[in-house]
């Protein structure tokens, strides 16, 4: 076996707790929405004195040159074929990738343990979707912690999934979409994670594996905060036999830095400088969500008809079946002088910009918390996974946004944008979003609940 690459000087000179160097090992799930929180956690732990070693797949591999203070250990896998695009393929890939890496990871982990010495390794933090990685680490006597990169209520749904199936909520039936899920208020059936009958079995497997990984670990790390999900966190602590650390929002402690898989167009920040406060709608549907050509057209003309200034991320691969995203003919002329379209953008900085007054989002958890933390109200258009539940909370629990439900039609899009950006409802949402922003600042400030949770996490890691 080829030995892992030697650590950098920076890695060698890191943590010294009680006279001993301590290392934390990380293994992210190789998707953008999972990579970013793991690298933010790496930044938090590195700042607390840990040396960081990142195990990673070849699929969506990070660039070690962007993270000179960390050591990287590539783990070969046996997954082949084109990159997954359809959500069913993504779920199947998530289920398979841990097993595909398990044997190689076990050998590489053994080599790292021999090099560092077992006592120098505090633990492995892995994405909860990588159950075989947890099992391999446990076989070698390495304590594990599970990172869930979504909300507390999302994981509560994972644990409740067998019950939801037993009671007939799942698989979702179109006739039951608006039926309340009385066991998980305020969810309706449409807010539950579902990818159709054909994908139901593999989705159940994905959730069961994540729950098993968490229950078999030494603790659960969540990228959320007490003021946002107090009731949901209390429920998890009652239901789980492992400690729960709500240390988020992680981006407030540690910027994502250079963990983006797509090249960011930073010229949009300068473009925003010319606009008045809270006047620009920022539109981005994340790194995975796809839309049909028809939906792209209706979205474009709805944006154009709203007469609201906008910054729109149209990333490569966003439209199904099309390598190149072409906006409708005449759209550029219709919006000239009040809009900008980019392939990818520095989202955290954009949401902090004074000119951004609303965010049309797919409601991935990272995007949702970043918007909450900057006091930006949301127009919600969830596509899959936990996004529907996140949108439900945005509109009906936190009341900082509105969901665009049903078929995309330019008239409905136009009306929703105006309601968010210029209507009375939007102003009230913006006010409530400002209150949540203040709550997030308190949680992440000195003595705040998230800071205390990080202290507890570090103490816990040192005791394993």
From TrEMBL:
Keyword check for Transferase:
yes
Q: Does the keyword Endoplasmic reticulum apply?
A: no
Annotated CDD domains: GT1_Gtf-like (cd03784)
Q: Which Gene3D superfamilies match?
A: Glycogen Phosphorylase B (3.40.50.2000)
GO molecular function terms noted in the UniProt entry: quercetin 3-O-glucosyltransferase activity; quercetin 7-O-glucosyltransferase activity
Which keywords label this protein? Transferase
Which family would the database say this protein is a member of?
Belongs to the UDP-glycosyltransferase family.
Q: What's the gene? A: LOC101784691
What is the protein's given name? Glycosyltransferase
Q: Name one GO cellular component term.
A: cytoplasm
SUPFAM superfamilies for this protein: UDP-Glycosyltransferase/glycogen phosphorylase
- Give any Pfam family that matches: UDPGT
């Amino acid at each position: 076996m080829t030995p892992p690459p030697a650590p950098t000087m920076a890695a060698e000179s890191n943590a010294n707790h009680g006279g001993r160097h301590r290392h934390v090992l990380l293994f992210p799930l190789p998707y953008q929405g999972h990579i970013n929180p793991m690298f933010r956690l790496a930044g938090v732990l590195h700042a607390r004195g840990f040396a960081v070693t990142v195990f990673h797949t070849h699929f969506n591999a990070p660039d070690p040159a962007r993270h000179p203070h960390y050591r990287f250990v590539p783990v070969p896998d046996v997954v082949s074929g084109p990159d997954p695009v359809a959500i069913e393929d993504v779920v199947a890939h998530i289920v398979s990738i841990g097993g595909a890496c398990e044997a190689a990871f076990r050998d590489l982990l053994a080599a790292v343990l021999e090099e560092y010495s077992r006592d120098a390794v505090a633990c492995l933090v892995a994405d909860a979707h990588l159950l075989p990685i947890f099992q391999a680490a446990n076989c070698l006597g390495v304590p594990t912690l599970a990172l869930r990169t979504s909300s507390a209520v999302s994981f509560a749904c994972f644990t409740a999934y067998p019950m939801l199936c037993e009671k007939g909520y799942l698989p979702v039936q179109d006739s039951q979409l608006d039926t309340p899920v009385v066991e998980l208020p305020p969810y309706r059936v449409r807010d539950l994670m579902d990818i159709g009958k054909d994908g139901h079995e593999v989705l159940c497997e994905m959730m069961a594996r994540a729950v098993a990984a968490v229950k078999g670990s030494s603790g659960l790390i969540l990228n959320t905060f007490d003021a946002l999900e107090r009731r949901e966190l209390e429920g998890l602590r009652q239901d789980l036999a492992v400690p729960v650390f709500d240390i988020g929002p992680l981006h407030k402690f540690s910027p994502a830095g250079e963990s983006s898989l797509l090249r960011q167009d930073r010229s949009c920040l300068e473009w925003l400088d010319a606009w008045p406060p809270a006047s620009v709608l920022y539109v981005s549907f994340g790194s995975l969500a796809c839309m049909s050509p028809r939906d792209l057209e209706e979205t474009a003309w709805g944006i154009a008809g709203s007469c609201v200034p906008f910054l729109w991320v149209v990333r490569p691969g966003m439209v199904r079946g099309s390598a190149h995203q072409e906006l409708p003919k005449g759209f550029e002329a219709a919006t000239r002088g009040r809009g900008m379209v980019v392939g990818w953008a520095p989202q955290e900085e954009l949401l902090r910009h004074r000119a951004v007054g609303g965010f049309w989002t797919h409601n991935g958890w990272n995007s949702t918390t970043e918007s909450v933390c900057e006091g930006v109200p949301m127009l919600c258009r969830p596509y899959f996974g936990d996004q529907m539940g996140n949108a439900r909370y945005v509109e009906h629990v936190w009341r900082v946004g509105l969901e665009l439900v049903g078929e995309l039609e330019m008239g409905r899009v136009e009306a929703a944008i105006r309601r968010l950006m210029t209507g009375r409802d939007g102003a009230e949402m913006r006010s409530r979003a400002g209150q949540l922003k203040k709550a997030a600042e308190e949680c992440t400030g000195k003595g705040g609940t998230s800071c205390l949770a990080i202290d507890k996490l570090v103490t816990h890691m040192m005791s394993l």
